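Friendly challenge for the regulars: who can give me the structure tokens for this chain first? No prize, just bragging rights.
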Amino acid sequence: MSAMRRCLLVVVVLVSACAPKLAPAPVVTAPKFPDFMRPAVPAAYAGSVAAEGASRGWAFLQAGDFKNAERELSAALKAEPAFYPAETSLGYVELARKDAKAALAHFDRALELNPQHADVSALIGRGQVLLGLNREGDALAAFEAAVAADPSQTDLARRVEVLRFRTAEQVLARARDAAKAGRLEDASQAYLAAIASSPESPFLYRELAGVERQKGNVSAALEHLRRAVGLDPSDASSLAQIGEMLEDAGDFEGAAKAYADSLAIEPNAAVEARVEAARARLALARLPAEYRALDQASQITRADLAALVGIRLAPLLQNAPRVNAAVITDVRNNWAAPWIMAVARAGIMEPFANHAFQPRTLVRRVDLAQAVARLLVRAAARNPGRVKTWESERVRFSDLSAGHLAYPAASAAVAAGVLTTGPGNSFQPSRPITGAEAIDALTKIEALAGVR
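First reply, four minutes later:
Bragging rights claimed.
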């Protein structure tokens, strides 16, 4: 053997002696961590040094030899820094060591190295770490992403459904506790999180609406209640709440419709009362401003009284015998003209001899008594048992004799309980009437006639 060949042989022997001895990869028959998902090796890395190192590292991990597993996987990454399966496997090594922080860093790094195609193994590992950290919402997002990337993960899909339900229950409990404690902003955020997990649950929107209503955020509360009704058309409670908020906002038409829709689903005495009130307020809102101001008027005119009678006691006028009052010369441009014509034709308030109604003339107690007496006749026709009470009684007044032309009307009005006497049993026939007094009188006639 030549001297040169002897030198080469010596070099080879020395190099071989200095090379690190690789531990033989274990043959794993019973994996220590069967729930860990082995990352797939991309086709581009098949047969590479990195792929071989990752395979050995996974075998050491499943044998429980974390030190050799880490060494093999780190070597694979050193050979191929972008080889994300090794990074994922290192995440599982740290997960096995129960080092959640280190494991999460490796899984995140693996996902960063492969942004175009989600690494299902890294996503599942990340979800497991987050579960251990009690970050169930984040864990759920990771598992959902894994199922989206690989729909064949049926077991994981079932786990996702269970986790969704459990997460929603926990978030809902936090939301309700926060609302009960008056932490309304925290409650809102918790309900929104619960809705994100279960967007088709109408009761979540209904409860969130209650919180927003307490915060004074009416528009948001209405939006959530309408969403609840959209998901559950039989939700009578949400419809009733919509009606309440619309009524409070002055939208009486919308409120009446919401109440009516609620009643169509489920009878409810309280809602029935509210729908009637909303309809009455709607009718009032549609009336002229002059009418709406009458309850505050210190004095009222004949036009005002005609409007009050025509609107509030319309049923008594509808069936009354018509009086020839077609010619009234001074009400054409008056706001109360329609009701002036109605009460004149019914004979409740008559025009004067010159065919003038004198709509701006103030109403005195004696004028109101005459209108009341005529209305009582109409009321008696609807409730005959009451007429003898006020027809037969003769009330004594200190300032109005029994022979006075207005006495019969005044006596009937007082006897029926519609009007009252003043100090010293006076009737005060010339005193002007306030709007509140006129409304009170007509309200009593409504009760006597049973028109409300």
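Confidence is low (pLDDT under 50) at residues 1-20. The two ends are 130 Å apart (CA to CA). Your move, everyone else.
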